[in-house]
Amino acid sequence: MTNETWGLVREELIKRVGRNNYVTWIEPLRLSDLNGGVARFEVPTTFFGDWVSRNFADHIRAQLNTSGVSVDRVEFAVGQSARGQKGQGRAAAPAAPVAAAVSAAKPATARATAKPRAETEEMPGAPLDSRFTFDSFVVGKPNELAHAAARRVAEGGPVTFNPLFLYGGVGLGKTHLMHAIAHELQTRQPHLRVLYLSAEQFMYRFVQALRERQVMDFKEIFRSVDVLMVDDVQFIAGKDSTQEEFFHTFNALVDQNKQIVISADRAPGEIKDLEDRIKSRLQCGLVVDLHPTDYELRLGILQQKVELYRQQYSGLVIADGVLEFLAHRITTNVRVLEGALTRLFAFASLVGREISLELAQDCLADILRASDRKLTIEEIQRKVAEHYNIRLSDMIGPKRVRNIARPRQIAMYLAKQLTPRSLPEIGRRFGGRDHTTIMHGVRKIEELMATDSQMSDDLQMLRRQLQG
Ligand code: ADP
Ligand code: MG
Predict the structure, then answer these.
(1) Which residues surround the ion ligand 2 when the cut-off is CB under 5 Å?
(2) What are the sequence ranges of the domains in the chain?
């Protein structure tokens, strides 16, 4: 089985296990070997492997067999490359193989169904995720504009801006908002022909139409919709004939005053290899960006998800501070945040324990490591100076009076504890002091902590503030 086939199988698995489970458990799997009817996958942690094996092994095996890969058993093991992956954005990385799979592997199975689809004139859109509604979308500062614009389009009134162009980094809610628009429009105006698909699917359909000499059908279908939504349009950059067709489709719909909603991972002007005429067309409507999440939004999203999970896993107890901890530490994107929560709940229900801070740290070690904030010595100096009400310059300066030297030693101690810097490196940041001076400072504070409870309280608080 090639990776393309696995890509295709994964696509099918979305339908079987649901998007949430898919993103959390299936997407991170790496096919490592297929031999003698045994498919082996790499997983990031042992727990992960256990969970997938208990809950999804049958689905995976069945789907492999359905897709013509005969497999008796699937196995999961913690693997080398899975380890190497942790440092990167976990959500973004696994998407690529699927993307490749759609164009490379789909034709074989799709060909059989292509005819009836054209005959019944079924809309060639992608299925909508029923969970992506406005109700489940948490609004905060970073996304309020995008949300308001999406709401406006979803009202289905006269077209006031065309297209609506939503952009922002991965996992910030672009797809969620687009599905929400589609759901809302379909509820309010069931007669509307709303077509949602990814740019990649647009390309795939187009290429298929070319190959099967059904370009006229293709044009007709796409030009007869009332609302067209194309997700991740950056995908067609550099794909010339697809861009061309997209441009014509786009113009035809705009001319008929049909609403278009587009998303991309960056602003229209910043998409490389996208034709200028398309860029300028895309900029004609309303361009809004989704900003990276802030702490409040992340916490809001977590709280909302917890409510949902409570219905699923009854008797679940979450200790105070766990959600705050996650919102603070997992800053990459919402998808990772959700994945963390899903895993945490699964784990807690498996072992029947309350979700404590400790359990969260254990169970999510890989995710937390990947999104670790890098604390700098500068930040530590600043914080400590502020706390003891001395000047930042005194941290690196030569003064030796106790009320300055002591805070300086505290900062040295924290720098040693909270950053990976070596003693000589720390010395350099403290005005070029020798590493033995730093060592002396660190020891001094360790001693004091053992005897001076005020000192140890102070340090605990500083540490908490610095680490969040
Ligand atoms: P994008 O398309 O921008 O990469 P998605 O729309 O796929 O991101 O969002 C990733 C995940 O995060 C989805 O499960 C989505 O429901 C969730 N999500 C993102 N933003 C929000 C939000 N503001 N409120 C609730 N869930 C959100
Ligand atoms: Mg998306």
Answers:
(1) 174-175
(2) 3-97, 141-290, 295-371, 377-467
